[in-house]
Amino acid sequence: xxxxxxxxMRIRRVVIxxxxxxxFVLFSAVLTVKTPFAEISLxxxxxxLCAYLFGPxxxxxxxxxxxxxxxxxxxxxxxxxxxxxxxPVILQAAVASLGFWVVRRTGKPWLVIAVLVLSELVLTFxxxxxxxxxxxxx
Length: 138
What we know:
This protein is mostly helical.
């Protein structure tokens, strides 16, 4: 009976990860406002929720597969710099997972806001670095 429950929980977790991946791709395609100077998006919300709920392994899987699918389905497609554009999202997932682990260990819920701000700042700076390196490569 215990094996059945653990298998059922693993299947449920994989399905929830797939939903988070689909939400990431959907949010990046639909809920993104692009201006000449900035891009405002809710695409990181599923990654942050996954990092908070399930931890680093699931968050990194959602970030890697979601950013890969976003890149492939976008205007740019699959190119030499695809891993370069996947890296900021994966880095954000790693920082958020580590931060939420600290929140759970310390028991201080106000740190959630600090983790969210820090992970978004990491994403912003990593995207800027990816843009610079992409321009340098091409």
